[in-house]
Design goal:
Low-confidence stretches: 1-24, 94-99, 292-298
Distance between the termini: 48 Å
Mean pLDDT: 77
Helix content: over 70%
Keywords: Membrane, Transmembrane, Transmembrane helix
Organism: Dendroctonus ponderosae
Number of helices: 12
Radius of gyration: 21 Å
Order of helices and strands: HHHHHHHHHHHH
Strand content: under 5%
Number of strands: 0
Largest sheet: none
Protein name: G-protein coupled receptors family 1 profile domain-containing protein
Length: about 300
């Protein structure tokens, strides 16, 4: 069974050229088996954490803000990506694979669309903070049309992947590095310039964008380097049990786990997320009691009646 996590590596052609036989190669089989287990564990954590945060944003009035709607789309892309990978694993038996030779390519295109779109949405999340804190005139225009920019991210990712299917990994790398550069510049501006407290209400948007970029940086650097090595130095000896492959998978898992940590860190960065999580847990686990200075009734009223930021 082809491992869905190799969707983001540049080793697929290398494996074909090397003629790797996973049935007879015990080391490769063990590595792929461990990778599959790790993938399912991380996917479960991602779906549960992103589902919790998405539910909190949709459920409570105070959470339905412009910034959180952008974050919600980021989380939806993560969940959709994991579900697509799960479906691929279920369908990628030998019979299905050989009777439908294009199934891998089709799933791969969908995964590239979601991943590129996620990079663009986290970039938009960082720009959302910058515009709200620095550009009053532009920000007033942006507030009325922010849904257009969210939709544009989806359209750009879909159009780029479908228009250049043979260069998807290049598009993903370029999208990441451009997004990472802009996010880094905005983060530097955040600390160089002094902002009033009112401008920092949604500073968590920039923080989570930086976290997401940092978690993905090792993997993107590794696959960019290896992509150059494979294409230009014509080295096709990578193997599922070799160090470059294993290293790239470890870094891929690091990027995959980023949304899980983002959902946890949001509880520390923003009071509304902390309250929302506690209310969600309290409604599902009756014995849970949030630590807050309000009684239960006052607590619910405070949160649901709060003004939208």
């Amino acid at each position: 069974m082809e491992d869905a996590i190799s969707n983001y590596t540049v080793f697929e052609d290398a494996f074909n050229e090397a003629g790797v036989n996973y049935n007879s190669d015990l080391n490769a089989y063990v590595v792929e088996y461990i990778i599959s287990i790790g993938f399912y564990i991380i996917s479960t954590l991602r779906i549960c954490s992103c589902g919790l945060c998405s539910y909190a944003i949709c459920k409570f009035k105070c959470m339905r803000t412009r910034t959180n709607y952008i974050l919600l789309n980021c989380l939806i892309c993560v969940i959709a990506q994991d579900l697509v990978m799960a479906v691929f694993h279920l369908l990628s038996t030998k019979i299905t694979y050989f009777s439908s030779p294009n199934i891998f390519s089709n799933f791969l295109l969908i995964l590239y669309i979601f991943q590129i779109n996620t990079f663009l949405l986290y970039l938009l999340l960082a720009l959302d903070w910058y515009l709200s804190a620095n550009c009053n005139f532009i920000f007033n225009k942006y507030k009325k049309a922010y849904t257009f920019f969210i939709g544009s991210a989806y359209l750009v990712s879909i159009a780029s992947v479908l228009s250049f299917p043979s260069a998807n990994i290049i598009i993903m790398m370029v999208t990441y590095f451009v997004s990472a550069l802009i996010v880094a510049i905005l983060y530097i501006i955040r600390f160089v310039k002094i902002y009033p407290p009112a401008s920092l209400k949604i500073s968590y948007a920039l923080t989570v964008s930086v976290i997401y970029v940092l978690f993905w940086s090792p993997f993107m650097v590794v696959i960019t380097t290896l992509h150059i090595v494979i294409l230009y130095l014509e080295i096709f000896s990578f193997h599922a049990s070799t160090l470059p492959y294993i290293t790239s998978i470890v870094f891929l898992f690091l990027g995959y786990i980023a949304p899980f940590f983002i959902v946890i860190i949001l509880r520390k960065l923003d009071k509304n997320f902390k309250i929302a999580y506690e209310l969600v847990f309290r409604s599902t686990v009756r014995k849970y009691r949030p630590s807050n200075p309000y009684s239960d009734c006052e607590y619910d009223q405070y949160f649901n009646d709060s003004d939208v930021l």
